[in-house]
Amino acid sequence: MNYLIVGLGNIGPEYLFTRHNIGFMALDYLAKLKELKFSPDRYASQCSYKLKGHQIYLIKPNTYMNLSGKAVNYWMQHLKVPKENMLILVDDLALPFETLRLKPKGSSGGHNGLKSIEASLLSSEYPRLRMGIGDNFPKGRQAEYVLSNFSEEELGLIPEVLERSIPFMETFCLEGIQQTMNKYNQ
Where is the site described as Stabilizes the basic form of H active site to accept a proton found in this chain (predicted)? Predict the structure, then answer.
């Protein structure tokens, strides 16, 4: 069975350590653990590995956040992966920094990457791992906040957050969303 894990983010060195790129960071962390290299491909950088008989595809869209749906839709069709076998890794302002929460569906919550995916799939019913980035910004400064770099203190904690994201991803592929939520949601 095929699974597709999509990390949301923006391409380019200026976005590397921004809050909006935590989805990319999580996939980079997993790829490093598995000794995988991302290769540029259509609408995304991609790599894959086998996990107990399942083929796991990792993609980082190169369409920029606001057009993530184009890459997601293409790779779902190309790999013949149903929505329930896809997991989106997304930054979330509504969750405190370091919080990870898996959900089977939900609204975009104003997140442009999720809005784009919903528009492409004509549905908001797809699994997502919400990765908390906090909401420590002045009113009206949301865009600046998500596109700003993590603080030094936060960067020191990021490896532990990324490490905790791995069981969410792999258990999702092996045991399904309900079991994963039961085991790991905070």
Answer: 91
Q: Return d(Cα 186, Cα 182) in angstroms, integer.
A: 9
pLDDT in tens, 115-140: 999 999 999 999 999 999 998 888 88
Residues 157 and 165 sit within 8 Å (Cβ to Cβ): no
Query: What six digits make up the tokens of 177?
Result: 């969303």
The per-residue pLDDT for range 88-104, each reduced to its tens digit, is 999 999 999 999 999 99
CA distance 87 to 58: 10
Which are the catalytic amino acids?
Answer: 20
Residue 97 in 3-state DSSP?
coil
Which residues contribute to the annotated binding site for tRNA? 15, 64, 66, 112
Q: How many CA atoms lie within 13 A of 40 on its CB side?
A: 3
Kindly write down the DSSP assignment for every residue of 118-162, as one continuous string.
HHHHT-S-S-EEEEE----S-TT-HHHHHTSBPPHHHHHHHHHHH
- Which tokens hold the place of 88? 């989106």
Length of the chain: 186
Tokens representing 89 are 């890794």
- Reading the block at residue 91, the tokens are 């930054």
Structural contact between residues 145 and 134, judged by C-beta atoms closer than 8 angstroms: no
